Amino acid sequence: MLCRSNFCHILLEGRDHLRETSTANLMANVVTSVCCVVLAAVVVVIAQRRSQQGARVQYERMGSDVTMQCGSLGSDASATWKVNGTDVRARQAQDGPRLVLMEVNLSSNGLYSCFQNPDGERRDQIILRVGTPPKEPVVMCRSNTYPKGFYCSWHLLDPTYIPTDFDVHVKHNQRSLEVQKDAVHKNRCHVRFPELFSTFKYRVNVTAVNALGKASSAITFDDFAIVKPDPPEKVVAAPVPNNVRRLEVTWNSPSTWPDVENFPLKYFLRYRPLIREQWQHVELSDSTSHTITDAIAGKEYIIQVAAKDTEIGTWSDWSVAIHATPWMDEPKQVISTTEAEGIVETSPSPAPPSPKPRLGVSAGACSPLLWSAPLLLPSVLLSLL
Fold first, then answer.
1. Is 380 exposed, middle or buried (0-12, 13-18, 19+ CB in 10 A)?
2. pLDDT top residue among 378 and 234
3. H helices within 266-365, ranges in order?
4. CA separation, residue 264 to residues 28, 206, 230, 248, 291 (Å)
5. Contact in structure between 173 and 200 (CB atoms under 8 Å)
6. Which of 208, 204, 225, 227 is nearest to 216 (CA)?
């Protein structure tokens, strides 16, 4: 029996080992397959990039008919065209070594290759990029670092689908100012104020340029008109202890505002309970704190703050919304009379007394007199004799 038990144990261990081995082999096969797929994709990308080396780029307007010439082949030569390695299936016409695509669109983009007939030698490669010329860009300028300088940003309302660059020129009092490109936002630049409280306007001209055309927009403004601080930072609201209707709100001036001492900010606070849609507002001077005194007890509030230069410019956007609830009384514990008097029972109460049985009511509860009646009657008769 012991031998048989050991043998069974060995078989079970062998089975578990086979299962672990099969699982490990399956995982290894999956990892190998994934690696092969990734490697194949990398090879395809490398092959495409290598095939595009030496290819020339041809930009064309969307919706137009496009003609592509196969290198320097003469008009009497014959050529076969491929796009991304496959046959050209778009609407087309061929005229000797030239390929004409009808009403091109974004699906016409690709790498076109031509091969001279009949030897099949590749003679040219063209990367076709279909797009549109730019329209007038939308330009906006703002000073959130007054009095140091301002920035301008721009964007196109409609995409061009091809690379588009922007030329920016800023003038003040007939003098061109230095423009510094933003390190993060490609459609933004920074300009320093050459002087403060100038009576001359600034003029900013932005020109969008690509291979299919260009368009310009220009705006003019006074320095004080574009002043708009960033929202206040680190807004905090806390309940006031022992006061169910107060919230203490504090915040910091925006860190981008360079000189809050000489160019102070004023603030605008708004708050409302979540159960209502209407805001309550408080305008403050240069204080960075405020106590809300009319909060509804026990209701959660949403609070935001905005900032503005005390004399010029416009209000900032609202700060990130925060939530707070006024202080609430802790519920008092209810103490029973027994606990208050300190009475603790150590023994169980006696059971209530059972009612005395009634004669003649229940056969199972008869008195001893009734049970002894048959024996008492003969005794009485014998005594009479």
1. exposed
2. 234
3. 337-341
4. 66, 33, 13, 22, 21
5. yes
6. 208
Tokens of 131: 């797009």
**CB pairs under 8 A, 24+ apart, for 253-262?**
253/288, 253/307, 254/144, 254/229, 254/230, 254/307, 254/316, 255/230, 256/144, 256/145, 256/229, 256/230, 257/144, 257/145, 257/146, 257/229, 257/230, 257/307, 258/145, 258/146, 258/147, 258/148, 259/147
As a whole number of angstroms, the distance between CA 12 and CA 279 comes to 73
Instruction: Answer yes or no: is pLDDT of 178 > 60.
Output: yes
Q: Tell me, what amino acid is at 34?
A: V
| pLDDT tens column, 73-124 | 998 999 999 999 999 999 999 989 999 999 999 999 999 999 999 888 999 9
Question: Identity (one letter) of the amino acid at 293?
Answer: T
The DSSP bridge partners found for residue 252 are 233
- Each residue of 336-357: pLDDT tens digit? 444 444 444 444 444 444 444 4
Which phi and psi angles does 45 have, rounded to 5°?
A: -60, -45
